[in-house]
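User: I'm preparing a small set of examples for a lab meeting where we compare how different chains pack in three dimensions. I only have the primary sequence for this one, and I'd like the structure in token form so I can line it up with the others. Please keep the answer compact; I'll paste it straight into my notes.
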Amino acid sequence: MIARGILRGGLAGAIVAAAFSILGVIPICGFVALPLRFGAWTFGGYVGGRIAVKGGASTGGVAAGAGAGVIAGLLDGIVNIGLAPVRYALAGGAISSLHLLPQGILQIFAGWGIDLLAMDTVGGSIFFATLLCGITWVISGALGTLGGGIAQALND
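Assistant: Understood. Below is the structure token output for the 156-residue chain.
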């Protein structure tokens, strides 16, 4: 039952999070989409934990929630990698967040031999989206654990 909860909860959270990621492509909605995605990952963990607990795994809600959160974050990250070229095109061919970095940070990377502004391309946007996908797994797993814990606590 835990595996079923992980898969179903992960898919439920991923579908909701992917919808919010698509909404985030619209420039004015981008800042609202991230908190909504956090809620979607927690929702996926809750669904996974609820399925596991209702299926007879009385102490598996937290584990199922963590697994479901990671799956939701992974699939959402893959959607974001696919949306990176669209975001780049809508931003006028620029990764605007790179240009907003303070000069001190740009100089630190320049000291290491990395010119971040040279990565202001479609490939660079895909690269940064892939890096963010790795961070997404950790955050979504933690939020999924929270959702699974809530499902477990409501069952007790």
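A couple of notes for your slides: The CA atoms of residues 5 and 51 lie 5 Å apart. Residues 2-155 form one domain.

User: Perfect, thanks.
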